[in-house]
């Protein structure tokens, strides 16, 4: 349950994605971005996956950019006909698509005149007002427009783009987490766990059951305040101890 | 690009999900559900991940259940305080939460009087009007209310619930797919690929670049019409052949 441990800077991720929605390709950017953002003090607060349809992308962009401090999009910025993210974001902002001179210069220099094809020139287009995000891997830049960051979908490129924008982000507090594996049905500790949550309102306590080799629950305690996690974890361990349940050592607070 | 190959039955998935948004746990249900739905002739058309906050869940439920034929939710139906999906869906529908007598009977029988704790009784609660979805793995049922299917988050349980609802779903056409790996920069085939897309409007042609051991692009052609895929794939292979690019054998149409 998310409680008042919510920090004050929140982001959303929009995955542009027929290939993800088909189930054939598994998204690899969500968890990387979530962890990266939390390290710089920003909470990933909503994710959407939408198909490669301009109106759907534009509607999601407008819903998410107005609701959160930042919106990251991944996918659809390549040279092929199905890469419609730039056009869709431009439609969301109600601005035209224009060639960015610096993007053009960088790509012309990198590819040389002969290899700077029409398709590659497509990757110099930005929604009017967009600024470039460096792409150390494959040159073709990402784009920032207001609070929207248009990123590549290829994980290696997306990750390299993040490093370049870190300094430009307004950041809040990191949310720390600590987890404890309890080897008992979560229903047996549910009542006690609910009371501990009430008594530790500065934390968010989640219980995630697992089945497979044995069964049990991973108890995850989150807070921007490490001492609050420590106190709540102590209470959870006392509860399990009193009820005679086996536990692993809790993880480090990280 | 999604074109007129869209079939007529569409579903959305709502992942309820502090643990997914934190990046600590990777969702395993999206791709399974997408592939399963397509096999029965339903297209997964949008996915959202929202935090464990009742108003956020309820708002997403209402947005998605009105937009799509079906909505599946995963997560948040266990016995602990952070399991708020039933209450949130009830709020979305504007109905009270009630104990479902058959759910109560099943769980009382399974656990016996002594082990049928208050926490487990929480799992007999449904939004008023909800019907049960069988859970062959761990008894506690999922819930159907109108076009919304409330499923467990644990993949093994979610998957077992799907089998029980298959017969109740209105189904459309399966979208077939075939892919071809081309060992060339996608920008080099972009122009030709765009023309082939225009000439084959009954298909949806996607190009997904990869980097790592070599580089290239996976060309994925989708359609409910296998012959249309066949024709478009022939055109793509001719294009690559004419340009002298190495290709792997295309996959089977599946």
UniProtKB/TrEMBL annotation, chains A, B:
Domain MoaB/Mog: 12-172
Pfam families: FLAD1_M, MoCF_biosynth
Recorded superkingdom: Bacteria
Coiled coil start-end: none
PANTHER family registered for this protein in UniProt: NICOTINAMIDE-NUCLEOTIDE AMIDOHYDROLASE PNCC, NMN AMIDOHYDROLASE-LIKE PROTEIN YFAY
Name of the molecule in the record: Molybdenum cofactor synthesis domain-containing protein
Source organism per UniProt: Kordiimonas lacus
């Amino acid at each position: 349950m998310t409680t008042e441990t919510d920090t004050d800077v929140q982001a959303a991720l929009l995955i542009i994605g027929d290939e993800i929605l088909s189930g054939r390709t598994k998204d690899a950017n969500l968890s990387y971005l979530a962890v990266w953002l939390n390290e710089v003090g920003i909470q990933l607060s909503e994710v959407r996956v939408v198909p490669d349809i301009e109106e759907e992308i534009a509607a999601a962009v407008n819903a998410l950019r107005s609701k959160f401090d930042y919106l990251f999009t991944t996918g659809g910025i390549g040279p092929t006909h199905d890469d419609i993210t730039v056009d869709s974001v431009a439609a969301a902002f109600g601005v035209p698509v224009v060639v960015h001179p610096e993007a053009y210069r960088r790509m012309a220099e990198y590819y040389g005149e002969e290899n700077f094809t029409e398709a590659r020139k497509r990757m110099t287009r930005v929604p009017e007002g967009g600024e470039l995000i460096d792409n150390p891997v494959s040159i073709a830049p990402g784009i920032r427009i207001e609070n929207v960051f248009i990123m590549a979908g290829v994980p290696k490129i997306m990750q390299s783009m993040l490093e370049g924008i870190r300094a430009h982000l307004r950041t809040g507090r990191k949310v720390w987490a600590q987890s404890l594996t309890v080897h008992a049905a979560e229903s047996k500790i549910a009542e006690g766990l609910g009371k501990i949550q009430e008594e530790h309102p500065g934390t968010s306590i989640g219980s995630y059951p697992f089945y497979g080799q044995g069964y049990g629950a991973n108890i995850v305690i989150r807070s921007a305040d490490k001492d609050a996690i420590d106190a709540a974890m102590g209470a959870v361990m006392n509860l399990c101890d009193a009820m005679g349940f086996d536990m692993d050592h809790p993880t480090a607070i990280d």
